[in-house]
Amino acid sequence: MFIPLSSPDISNLEKKHVRDVLDSGILSSGPKQKQFEDLICRYTGMKYAVAMNSGTSALHVAVKALGLKTGDEVITTPYSFIASSNCLVYEGIKPVFVDIDGYTLNLDTTLIENKLSDRTKAILPVHIFGQTCDMDAVLTIADKYKLFVIEDACEALGASWGKDKAGTIGNVGVYAFYPNKQITTGEGGVLVTNSEQIFQYALSIRNQGRAENNDELAHMYIGYNYRMSELQAAVGVGQMERLPVILSKREQAAHRYLTLIKDYKLPVQVPFVHPISSISWFVFIVILPEGMNRAKIIMSLQENGIQTKPYFPVIHLQECYRELFGFRKGDFPVSEEMALRTLAIPFHSNITLLEQQYVIRHLSNALEEAAC
Ligand SMILES: *Cc1c(COP(=O)(O)O)cnc(C)c1O
């Protein structure tokens, strides 16, 4: 038995859209990209969507579109995938980390105000593992101090905060489509906004900074090639058409895990869902008891064909961040502790009950062995 950590959910619909693109002869900047962006707008209720070649690219464009620049500071979380703060470092912006809350694993918003300076220009919350950060608190602080809000919703398509969808609450939101996300385009990302100005800038900068009249050889900005291909967009169109089904399968799989974990009385903590937020299941994380030998558990599961991943490691202790900013162990204790205790177990929309039982049975054994 081999149970992968994640697996994309691709149907004949996506294959048909890809075949249509191949037959059409238009492989980039064509109608599928537009259709994909329209589907994103319709689903999120946002006015504008700009598809790009990765979530990281879309975050980078979001940062530039807001005019953030060298010397500015942005409040963000150290407990995330590194792209959420790399997009700041690209522009010489200092990521000012704020520790997380140990239950939701999102930014502890009560700590933000202490970290503000006259260089702070924005807050960049990450909706970690598909759970929306406390956006009421983020918006209150942003309004009070006139800060922009960039939502890294790369793990949170389908999540919400109250009646608002994650990614639609700040000035700009970004979703990503790497194969382990809720939906995939192979590689890809999309920026959403209600600002016409940000929209126009993003359109231009993803395409070498071309002028608005789309003159192929007139350039207003130093832009990038952050374009999404029609093949990627075709996969995305099929995935968006099936989004409700995919999200509901993930929700059911997550609840099967929650039930199994209870039945087996596993001594692990499961995601605490904030009462105002609804989670869109990106991965399934268990939080191991304090001091438990995680490496041993990973090994033992691996021997039984079960893939797991110890994530996320904290960003501030990565070699490159220590060197650039002088971060040290102990700077963000909750994030550091959670980084040592969180473990992602196999999770995707087509995981079966039998596979989940197998995972939980072996996890239960591994936990007992590690406790001795
Ligand atoms: C996936 C992800 C991204 C974007 O990743 P890409 O691989 O560039 O699409 C950004 N932030 C977070 C938190 C992510 O999980």
What does the model show?
The chain has helices at 12-24, 31-44, 55-65, 83-89, 135-145, 196-205, 230-241, 243-263, 294-303, 319-325, 333-341, 353-371; strands spanning 48-52, 73-76, 94-97, 120-124, 148-152, 160-161, 164-165, 172-176, 189-193, 277-278, 284-287, 342-345. It is of the alpha/beta class. Helix 3 (55-65) packs across helix 6. The chain is globular, with a radius of gyration of 21 Å. The chain has a seven-stranded mixed β-sheet, sandwiched between helices. It has a three-stranded antiparallel β-sheet with strand order 7-6-10, with no helix packed on it. The model has no long low-confidence stretch (mean pLDDT 97). The longest helix is centred in the last third of the chain and has 21 residues, at 243-263. 39% of the residues lie in helices and 13% in strands. The chain contains twelve helices and twelve strands. The protein binds pyridoxal-5'-phosphate. The site of pyridoxal-5'-phosphate has 14 residues, from helix 3 and helix 4.
